[in-house]
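User: I've been trying to design a sequence by hand for this structure and keep getting stuck. Would you show me what you'd pick, starting by listing the structure so we're on the same page?

Assistant: Good idea, let's start from the same input. This is the structure you sent:
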């Protein structure tokens, strides 16, 4: 039995890799879903419900283990590799720039192509021009760090408008950008920004900034959770037709040969687990590393469209990979990095700010 353990682990890892290779490709970005409405009747059958139940059970189990470990990841953080508190503060000071640029690029592309927040949501008529102008404004504001909190409110309003322009399904699939809007409203654009130079009175308080990671994490988690249903669990016909056009089910090449429907349900389960764990903040470092591989595997297939569309997710992942909610100094370092001046970012601060409660 002991000798079989590595084989079982390798087999499980292979299944996760293969299944998530299809999981993280947004099918609606590359396949016309107009003739594929949601099919909740198919989801309510025993097999899909069993797979979804497995994801929920894994989330409950992971949450209990996370609580038992008092919010500490198994994978060590940067400080285990020599990163000091001062260096972490530099990183946190740079993170709003990284997230801002990663969000600005797809918003600029969408705005100039009259798209609502994603490639599968074209707009027409007067609404297309209004939303396009607003998306472009937000993109430039995030890029330069000018009027950042105002632009965050604008982005949130654009997201809400989606319920009327493209429907709740597409709107909820793009909750990642609502989370980014919440992040910038609470945290601002950090030390290296036009706001810090010209509009310091518009920046948020430290009391607000300490909560900025929550919408960033929840927004991404909710988005992945929704997509697990709208593109797989509750839309099996769409997923199966997508696999006919893009044969991502490579299990037969490894002697597993899963039927397409089981492959889709397995992919949906992995995506649902990833989304729920991120949303609830369960072992963020481990789940981000699990998700990063499939997000990159399909880039060679779907090219620049997927790369640009996933840029906001890459920015959030970078933040969550370093963020340590179980470390008492995390919130203190975050606030210190966010509030120090640009010239002071690369030299030790003269005094330590008061410790904040880590979230």
């Amino acid at each position: 039995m002991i000798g079989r353990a590595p084989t079982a682990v390798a087999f499980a890892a292979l299944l996760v890799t293969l299944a998530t290779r299809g999981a993280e490709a947004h099918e609606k970005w590359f396949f016309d879903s107009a003739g594929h409405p949601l099919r909740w009747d198919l989801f309510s059958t025993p097999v899909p419900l069993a797979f979804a139940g497995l994801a929920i059970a894994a989330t409950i189990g992971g949450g209990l283990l996370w609580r038992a470990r008092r919010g500490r990841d198994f994978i060590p953080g940067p400080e285990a590799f020599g990163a000091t508190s001062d260096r972490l503060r530099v990183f946190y000071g740079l993170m709003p720039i990284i997230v801002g640029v990663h969000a600005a690029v797809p918003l600029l592309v969408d705005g100039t192509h009259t798209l609502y927040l994603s490639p599968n949501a074209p707009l027409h008529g007067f609404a297309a021009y209004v939303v396009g102008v607003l998306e472009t404004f937000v993109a430039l504001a995030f890029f330069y760090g000018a009027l950042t909190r105002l632009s965050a409110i604008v982005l949130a309003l654009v997201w809400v408008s989606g319920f009327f322009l493209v429907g709740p399904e597409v709107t909820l699939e793009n909750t990642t950008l609502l989370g980014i809007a919440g992040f910038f409203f609470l945290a601002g654009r950090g030390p290296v920004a036009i706001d810090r130079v010209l509009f310091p009175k518009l920046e948020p308080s430290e009391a607000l900034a300490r909560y900025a990671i929550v919408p960033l994490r929840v927004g991404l988690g909710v988005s992945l959770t929704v997509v697990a249903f709208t593109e797989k669990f509750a839309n099996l016909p769409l997923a199966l037709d997508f696999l006919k056009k893009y044969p991502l089910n490579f299990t037969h090449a490894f002697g597993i040969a899963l039927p397409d429907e089981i492959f889709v349900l397995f992919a949906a389960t992995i995506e649902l687990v990833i989304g729920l764990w991120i949303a609830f903040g369960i072992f963020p470092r481990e789940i981000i590393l699990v998700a990063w591989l499939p997000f990159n595997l399909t880039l060679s297939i779907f090219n620049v469209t997927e790369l640009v569309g996933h840029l906001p997710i890459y920015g959030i992942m970078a933040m969550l990979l370093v963020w340590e909610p179980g470390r008492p100094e995390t919130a203190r370092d975050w606030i210190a990095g966010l509030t120090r001046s640009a010239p002071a970012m690369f030299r030790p601060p003269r005094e330590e700010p008061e410790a904040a409660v880590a979230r």
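That's my pick for every position. To get oriented when you compare it with your attempt: Confidence is low (pLDDT under 50) at residues 1-15, 17-23, 351-359. Residues 5-346 form one domain.
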